[in-house]
Design brief:
single chain; about 210 residues; alpha+beta; 6-stranded antiparallel beta sheet; 5-stranded antiparallel beta sheet
Length: about 210
């Protein structure tokens, strides 16, 4: 049990030590729902901050201007879920949770009338939207969609209902010293660590060994 505790502590240390640069700052494409996107270039991790009403579920998609086949995060009173709409979605179908989540960490806080979710995941991951072109500069914008519901829990869209979604483009303010000419052949993971994260990792392993 103690070893497991220190393992999760190590993950928390790695996330906390990341150096994020904001590429999209507190942008709303729908009144009441905003998004910020930041990148950790050294570890190829993206931090997505979503803010919406505390008493309603809300979601933000990053893979097009329509619901069909869109990749979304849904935030409700149960936490954060990573989902994708079916290819033929028309607005009444609920998105399904991914079989394998790409989320490394997700923290949700409620302050006054707002619910805020801070999500960390790799640039690229299986079944998930690939943020690599957007965060490494081959493309300057991504197509997005956002919506919020009439209740605190998102179950099925026809039952829970939702306001008309908003759609727009998110433009990056980040710059790259040298834009890559080819895309990575493998999805980067949290294993792409800098020297200080290796040191933190081994310190925690030593602590776990002594606590056994």
């Amino acid at each position: 049990m103690r070893a497991l505790f220190f393992w999760f502590l190590a993950i928390a240390i790695l996330v906390a030590k990341a150096d994020y640069e904001t590429c999209v700052s507190d942008t709303s494409i729908l009144t009441g729902v905003s998004v910020s996107i930041a990148r950790d270039e050294a570890n190829q991790m993206v931090q997505i901050t979503l803010m919406g009403p505390a008493d309603k579920w809300f979601g933000h998609g990053f893979d097009g201007l329509v619901m069909a086949d869109n990749y979304v995060f849904v935030v409700d009173d149960r936490g954060v879920s990573e989902r994708r709409f079916p290819p033929n979605a028309t607005g009444t179908e609920a998105p399904s949770e991914l079989d394998t989540t790409s989320i490394v960490s997700a923290f949700v806080t409620v302050d006054n009338n707002n619910r805020t979710a801070v999500i960390v995941r790799p640039y690229s991951a299986a079944d998930a939207f690939d943020f690599t072109p957007f965060l490494t500069c081959p493309v300057s914008y991504i197509e997005t969609i956002a919506a919020y519901g009439i209740g605190p829990t998102q179950e099925t869209f026809p039952a829970s209902g939702h306001a008309p979604p908003g759609t727009n483009h998110l433009y990056s303010t980040c710059v790259c010293s040298e834009a890559p000419t080819t895309m990575p052949t493998e999805a980067p993971t949290a294993g792409c660590l800098t020297m200080h994260t290796f040191i933190s990792f081994y310190v925690v392993l030593i602590l776990c060994w002594f606590m056994q």
